[in-house]
């Protein structure tokens, strides 16, 4: 939704930052001077005893001198309530008595229809809750009591009951004047194929309302009371309100709890989430009848940087964890990962809580293993590696998995961890028998003279024979790798320069952003400020380009854009000199993204070629090195063109020399001469 010019300024004028922050903190009376709008408190974003969190009420900004958190009232609501920007605007506008701007007629009509559907869903919630108190729900109430849910919990989770009968809910809603198309559109009934009136979607089921992050009822999950029912659990069909792959059960409450510092736990079903929350694990969610989707994974990462996946301790639960690993690997970012807490065999979190109490669950959560360990366990547990071929197959499988990781830094750390696990598996283990968790058992030592790898010394960064590691990246970079354009400090400078030009081009000509949205999303920024600016471009540059600069100023401070645009290699860019030239901006971004990709591809090719060096070069390797040489030459030519056009100066020439030195050292090592 696009906000009109001046709306945010009016909102910030009406809202007092000290009032907004004051709901979350206790002001330090000794340091604070309320009359001057100068207020201090312990920081709400990190644990501390001293008052290092400063609010300047007159300027409308806060800053923590401990964790360096900063922003305005909107930013504070976003961070403390775990809500999106527009949700924060709506929250503060409601408090300030400022009416949200109206949408265009078509959008308003669509929103009105969605609001009507949500109202029908609320009627259904109330109907099912009343039905749980009837004689027909005696068995359902007994089942819920056996699962440890008392009256307060039933009210808190709004659990209800759908009685047997084909049109009981339908007739109840029609009796309240609800139109047919709204009942059908909400997924509460289905049309009959026999020409009779529609029939209820849910019958003889315990009903769990599903609410979105804003608290609106959008769907239901129903647990069958009949053990012979084909579907034990049944979710609402997808509707205008409900997309099961884009929502989470208990999303809103879990997000609020996670914002207070509790770990985010991902369980499999409704009862698991309810049991966990009632036991004190308030930030618990579950996917809605499917395996976790990539969209749901992004939702989880918005709530917490490292969700804990608490899966059932059965074959299906472990299999779901393995599928999640494969999906998550390409999406990993620095600081964004997953940990896994696998329940005891045959138990889910609800079973464990009822059998052993919350402490048992807490122990498992504390012992949750990182994703790399579960990946290793999947590929090694229960398998025998008693031949070079089997060991090579393991290396190939793991190499392919790690190549899925897009972030080069994370990819390197995964390689190092797996390499250490491989060393532990095969040291002193000629037989290669894997035990629990991939641990080796017995054997006389893999890597004795005459075959394999030498055992690695604990106080060395590599192998005693000086050879390369069995797979992945070496523990410490070689000289040639250190001088690679991406691995080096100069390489980071190069990438930072390219990022700056890309971001400045997008800021000065925001209409080009939609065309390059995917490229911006995939751009791995080496500079944290660049990454923040990239996120702001993606968040506001498409829907509201007219207020993009204002949002950047409020998020990063008034000097952020000035500092970016004043950089010499940015200031002389034709796009910055001629803002709004869409064609020039498109050409510039195409070229700049190509430069980043060519240098990254060259560095990856050099690193992979280093892995494959084994004293002699074969035809395939020399062909690959020629390709790398050509990529190097293209990058060098492009950078030299920059130097001629933009006068990047001495730093640009040094980058080229370093890359030539790195590449030349690699060619010399194998005795390859480029013709």
UniProtKB/TrEMBL annotation:
<dbReference type="GO" id="GO:0003677">
    <property type="term" value="F:DNA binding"/>
</dbReference>
<keyword id="KW-0639">Primosome</keyword>
<dbReference type="InterPro" id="IPR006295">
    <property type="entry name" value="DNA_primase_DnaG"/>
</dbReference>
<keyword id="KW-0479">Metal-binding</keyword>
<comment type="function">
    <text>RNA polymerase that catalyzes the synthesis of short RNA molecules used as primers for DNA polymerase during DNA replication.</text>
</comment>
<dbReference type="GO" id="GO:0003899">
    <property type="term" value="F:DNA-directed RNA polymerase activity"/>
</dbReference>
<keyword id="KW-0808">Transferase</keyword>
<feature type="domain" description="Toprim">
    <location>
        <begin position="262"/>
        <end position="344"/>
    </location>
</feature>
<dbReference type="GO" id="GO:1990077">
    <property type="term" value="C:primosome complex"/>
</dbReference>
<dbReference type="InterPro" id="IPR037068">
    <property type="entry name" value="DNA_primase_core_N_sf"/>
</dbReference>
<dbReference type="GO" id="GO:0000428">
    <property type="term" value="C:DNA-directed RNA polymerase complex"/>
</dbReference>
<dbReference type="InterPro" id="IPR030846">
    <property type="entry name" value="DnaG_bac"/>
</dbReference>
<feature type="region of interest" description="Disordered">
    <location>
        <begin position="427"/>
        <end position="486"/>
    </location>
</feature>
<feature type="coiled-coil region">
    <location>
        <begin position="599"/>
        <end position="626"/>
    </location>
</feature>
<keyword id="KW-0240">DNA-directed RNA polymerase</keyword>
<dbReference type="InterPro" id="IPR050219">
    <property type="entry name" value="DnaG_primase"/>
</dbReference>
<dbReference type="InterPro" id="IPR006171">
    <property type="entry name" value="TOPRIM_dom"/>
</dbReference>
<dbReference type="Pfam" id="PF13155">
    <property type="entry name" value="Toprim_2"/>
</dbReference>
<dbReference type="GO" id="GO:0006269">
    <property type="term" value="P:DNA replication, synthesis of primer"/>
</dbReference>
<keyword id="KW-0804">Transcription</keyword>
<dbReference type="InterPro" id="IPR002694">
    <property type="entry name" value="Znf_CHC2"/>
</dbReference>
<keyword id="KW-0238">DNA-binding</keyword>
<keyword id="KW-0548">Nucleotidyltransferase</keyword>
<dbReference type="GO" id="GO:0005737">
    <property type="term" value="C:cytoplasm"/>
</dbReference>
<dbReference type="InterPro" id="IPR013264">
    <property type="entry name" value="DNAG_N"/>
</dbReference>
<comment type="subunit">
    <text>Monomer. Interacts with DnaB.</text>
</comment>
<comment type="similarity">
    <text>Belongs to the DnaG primase family.</text>
</comment>
<keyword id="KW-0175">Coiled coil</keyword>
<dbReference type="Pfam" id="PF08275">
    <property type="entry name" value="DNAG_N"/>
</dbReference>
<dbReference type="Pfam" id="PF01807">
    <property type="entry name" value="Zn_ribbon_DnaG"/>
</dbReference>
<keyword id="KW-0235">DNA replication</keyword>
<dbReference type="InterPro" id="IPR036977">
    <property type="entry name" value="DNA_primase_Znf_CHC2"/>
</dbReference>
<dbReference type="GO" id="GO:0008270">
    <property type="term" value="F:zinc ion binding"/>
</dbReference>
<keyword id="KW-0862">Zinc</keyword>
<protein>
    <recommendedName>
        <fullName>DNA primase</fullName>
        <ecNumber>2.7.7.101</ecNumber>
    </recommendedName>
</protein>
<keyword id="KW-0863">Zinc-finger</keyword>
<feature type="compositionally biased region" description="Gly residues">
    <location>
        <begin position="429"/>
        <end position="453"/>
    </location>
</feature>
<dbReference type="InterPro" id="IPR034151">
    <property type="entry name" value="TOPRIM_DnaG_bac"/>
</dbReference>
<keyword id="KW-0460">Magnesium</keyword>
<feature type="zinc finger region" description="CHC2-type">
    <location>
        <begin position="43"/>
        <end position="67"/>
    </location>
</feature>
């Amino acid at each position: 939704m696009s906000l009109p010019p001046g709306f945010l300024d009016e909102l910030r004028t009406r809202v007092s930052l000290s009032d907004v922050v004051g709901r979350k903190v206790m002001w330090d009376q000794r340091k604070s001077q309320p009359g001057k709008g100068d207020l201090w408190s312990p920081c709400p974003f990190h644990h501390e005893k001293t008052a290092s969190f400063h609010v300047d009420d007159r300027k409308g900004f806060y800053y923590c001198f401990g964790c360096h958190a900063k922003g305005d009232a909107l930013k504070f609501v976003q961070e403390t309530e775990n809500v999106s920007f527009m949700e924060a605007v709506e929250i503060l506008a409601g408090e300030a008595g400022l009416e949200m701007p109206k949408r265009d007629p078509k959008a308003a009509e669509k929103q009105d229809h969605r609001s009507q559907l949500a109202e029908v869903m609320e009627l259904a919630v109330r109907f099912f809750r009343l039905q749980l108190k009837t004689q027909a729900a005696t068995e359902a109430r007994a089942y819920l009591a056996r699962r440890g849910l008392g009256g307060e919990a039933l009210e808190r989770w709004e659990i209800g009951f759908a009685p047997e009968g084909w049109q009981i809910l339908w007739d109840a809603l029609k009796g309240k004047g609800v139109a047919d198309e709204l009942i059908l559109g909400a997924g509460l009934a289905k049309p009959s194929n026999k020409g009779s009136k529609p029939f209820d979607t849910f019958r003889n089921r315990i009903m769990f309302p599903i609410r979105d992050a804003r608290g609106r009822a959008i769907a239901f999950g129903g647990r069958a009371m009949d053990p012979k029912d084909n579907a034990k659990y049944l979710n609402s069909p997808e509707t205008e309100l409900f997309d099961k792959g884009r929502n989470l059960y208990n999303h809103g409450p879990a997000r609020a709890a996670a914002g207070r510092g509790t770990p985010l736990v991902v369980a499999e079903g409704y009862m698991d989430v309810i049991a966990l929350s009632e036991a004190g694990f308030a930030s618990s969610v579950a996917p809605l009848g499917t395996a976790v989707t990539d969209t749901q994974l992004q939702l989880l990462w918005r709530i917490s940087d490292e969700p804990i996946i608490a899966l059932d301790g059965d074959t299906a639960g472990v299999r779901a964890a393995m599928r999640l690993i494969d999906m998550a690997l390409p999406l990993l970012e620095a600081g964004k990962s997953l940990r896994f807490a696998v329940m005891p065999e045959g138990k889910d979190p609800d079973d464990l809580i009822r059998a052993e109490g919350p402490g048992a669950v807490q122990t498992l959560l504390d012992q949750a293993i990182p994703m790399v360990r579960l990946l290793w366990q999947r590929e090694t547990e229960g398998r025998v590696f008693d031949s070079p071929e089997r060991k090579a197959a393991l290396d190939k499988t793991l190499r392919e998995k790690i190549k899925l990781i897009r972030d080069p830094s994370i990819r390197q750390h995964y390689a190092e961890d797996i390499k250490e696990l491989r060393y532990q598996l095969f040291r002193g283990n000629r037989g290669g028998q894997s035990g629990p968790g991939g641990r080796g058992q017995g054997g006389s030592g893999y890597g004795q003279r005459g075959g394999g790898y030498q055992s690695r010394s604990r106080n060395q960064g590599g192998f005693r024979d000086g050879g390369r590691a069995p797979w992945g990246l070496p523990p410490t970079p070689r000289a040639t790798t250190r001088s690679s354009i991406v691995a080096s400090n100069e390489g980071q400078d190069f990438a930072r320069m390219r990022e700056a030009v890309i971001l400045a081009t997008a800021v000065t000509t925001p209409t080009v952003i939609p065309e390059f949205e995917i490229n911006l999303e995939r751009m791995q920024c080496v500079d944290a400020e660049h990454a923040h600016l990239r996120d702001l471009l993606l968040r506001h540059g498409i829907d509201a380009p007219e207020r993009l600069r204002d949002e950047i100023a409020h998020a990063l401070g008034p000097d952020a854009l000035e500092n970016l645009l004043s950089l010499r290699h940015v200031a002389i860019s034709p796009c910055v000199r001629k803002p709004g030239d869409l064609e020039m901006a498109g050409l510039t971004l195409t070229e700049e993204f190509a430069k980043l990709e060519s240098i990254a591809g060259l560095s990856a090719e050099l690193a992979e070629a280093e892995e494959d060096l084994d004293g002699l070069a074969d035809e395939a390797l020399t062909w690959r090195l020629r390709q790398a040489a050509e990529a190097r030459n293209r990058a060098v030519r492009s950078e030299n063109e920059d130097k001629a056009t933009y006068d990047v100066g001495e730093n640009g020439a040094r980058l080229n020399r370093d890359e030539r030195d790195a590449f030349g050292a690699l060619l010399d090592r194998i005795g390859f001469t480029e013709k």
